[in-house]
Design a protein that fits this description.
By secondary structure, the chain is α+β, with helices and mostly antiparallel strands. It is 27% helix and 13% strand. Pfam families: zf-B_box.
Length: 112
């Protein structure tokens, strides 16, 4: 799975950027993403989007007005997939008896 974003909270920035520009992030620059390219599956800031548009004008892109079409950030995905009881485990199984997602530890201990 591609990495879509990185939280700036980890780098102790004064501001929180929900989606970082993918090319800028490769150069350790936290820059606010203005556009998501569905073809490249990357985010672009105002400066990088100009070059992207020149090179890949036919790519399908979505701006900030269409964030519902952007993928969930990696931090959100990780949070949603993490087991509440076993923080080092991801939810990988489904218990039909309890209609509940569970990690392998929970499945073994509580969902036989």
């Amino acid at each position: 799975m591609a990495t879509f974003s990185q939280s700036t909270m980890e780098t102790c920035s004064d501001s929180i950027i929900d989606f970082c520009c993918s090319p800028c992030l490769e150069h350790n620059i936290d820059q606010w993403a203005e556009l998501y390219c569905d073809t490249c599956q990357k985010f672009y800031c105002a400066e990088c989007v100009t070059l992207h548009g020149q090179l890949f004008g036919k790519h399908v892109t979505y701006g900030r007005g269409d964030t519902s079409k952007w993928p969930a950030s990696k931090e959100v995905q990780d949070f949603l997939l993490k087991c509440d009881l076993h923080e080092d485990k991801h939810l990988e199984m489904y218990c039909n008896d309890h209609s509940q997602l569970c990690c392998t530890n929970c499945a073994f201990l509580d969902h036989r």
